[in-house]
Amino acid sequence: MKKASISVDTRNVISDIDSRIYGSFIEHLGRAVYGGIYQPGSPLSDSDGFRRDVIELVKKLGVPIVRYPGGNFVSGYNWEDGVGPKDKRPVRLDLAWFTTETNEFGMQEFASWLEKAGSEMMMAVNLGTRGPDEARNLLEYANFPGGTYWSDLRRSHGKEKPYGIRTWCLGNEMDGPWQMGHKTAYEYARTVTETAKLMKWIDPSIELVACGSSNFHMPTFGEWEHTVLSEAYEHIDYISMHEYYANPADDTPSFLAENIGMDRFIKAVVSICDMVKAEKKSSRNINISFDEWNVWFHSKENDEKIEHWGRAPHRLEDVYTFEDALLVGGLLITLLKNSDRVKIACLAQLVNVIAPIMTNDEKAWAQTIYYPFMQASMYGRGTAIRTITECGTYDSRKYSDVPFIDSVAVRNDEKNELTLFVLNRGLDDDITVNLDFHDSVKGIEHISMSGYGLKETNTASSSPVVPHAKALGSGPVVLDKASWNVLRYSLI
What is the bridge-based pairing of β-strands 2-16 and 383-390? Predict the structure, then answer.
């Protein structure tokens, strides 16, 4: 059996963790809204049309913030279509996903759903087909107390108190040619600067996220970030990152190392942020909103067959495997390791569309990736602690010197607990890990996802891939091959 060691000293602090790092995303795409969180007339729905079973699963995830309404969808969206009486809302063509949008569900309904799910809204404004004027009107509608046209319109719609939305996305993936209203870096930089100015004049308390590159492989990556930050640095608070991970070649050793790529991407963007900070002689940091991340590749072939202009088609409904859950655990470790600069992150998406939660007309169920995300959200609140891991390495087709073990720790002072999140990427061997703690600890439990076939899945009829817990002592810990592990300790 292979051996390794992990050293944990709670003085080796990375950062306090912003709970929004466990955020998610709902877009008007596929069945995320219609048939996902909202299904009027279903026996599984409440009087507002919200799926009760979905709400319960979301609550267990503890998602603190949800980005809405897109995504590509927002770049052609008129926010006014989703407020006010439903019988007066227009039906429109959505050119992002070539569907028909009824607007039966909008910001009003989403805000009500969030109250029941125990989360808050991260609102995106349309900077594709629209611009600063519509953005400031939306903010006035949402956050201004009353006595003006837009705030009184909200009150006439039955919402006397402001929504109080504090986190706003300034467009979506504006560097992408697929985006409605696609812009050059300078065009977007000027638009985002003027939009941010107007919005913060209305409500200085809000935080604004500017679009970074759509992914690490965009030809304008780096140049885009530098241009946007150079123009808008003093007006924004975050720059976004998006990335999805795939294993189409069935190269599991490379796939399970993809969080190394995520780490490199984050550090590259942070470097650009800090370069512009130095150029401007600024005293403030621009932090990261990694507001789209997940595994996505299983459904792409089927999605190409979907006919245009349908309503809520089955799109992007990836069925996740056990190995996908392992990588999601690794990606969560990387986000926590970078929590000094990654303050917001959104697993994309939440229900049905590349999602941890799936539904049909009879039930909702948890996919494999649900569990590492839930455990990180449950036990990963507090202060991120840097661990020192010594273990063997391997080379894959894509990465070299990949550690078999990746880990991070979280100290929760409120509960007086210390939790280690540990991924064993090794496919062939269990690993005995000697744990060296600076603090005195007592084991609570060892939660593990292991022993499943790499391609094993959870479905509506069968959900075999779930975590299992066992006792945790004070000595070495055995990590099963290909496993995600949560080691929980009391600090004594």
Answer: antiparallel
- Of 108, 245, 114, 224, nearest to 176 (Cα)? 224
Domain 2-9+386-491 has CATH 2.60.40.1180: yes
Decide which of 3.20.20.80, 3.40.50.2300, 3.40.50.1100, 3.40.50.300 is the CATH code for 18-379: 3.20.20.80
Is 317 considered catalytic here?
no
Asked whether the predicted pLDDT for residue 458 surpasses 90, the reply is: yes
Mean pLDDT, residues 382-401 taken together: 98
Annotated catalytic residue, options 134, 140, 173, 231: 173
3-state secondary structure of 256: coil
Burial class of residue 390 in the structure, from the number of CB atoms within 10 Å of its CB (0-12 exposed, 13-18 middle, 19+ buried): middle
pLDDT tens string 392-411: 999 999 999 999 999 999 99
* Domains in the chain: boundaries: 2-9+386-491, 18-379
pLDDT for res 303: 87
The tokens describing 384, both together, are 């991120």
Q: Catalytic pick from 109, 292, 323, 417?
A: 292
Residue 349, class by beta-carbon neighbours within 10 Å (0-12 exposed, 13-18 middle, 19+ buried)? buried
Q: Is 169 helix (H, G, I), strand (E, B) or coil?
A: strand
What pLDDT does residue 176 have? 98
Pairing type for strands 207-210 and 99-101 reads: unpaired
Q: Is 234 a catalytic residue?
A: no
Q: d(Cα 270, Cα 265) in Å, to the nearest integer?
A: 9
Q: In this predicted model, what pLDDT tens digit does every residue of 106-151 receive, in sequence order?
A: 999 999 999 999 999 999 999 999 999 999 999 999 999 999 999 9
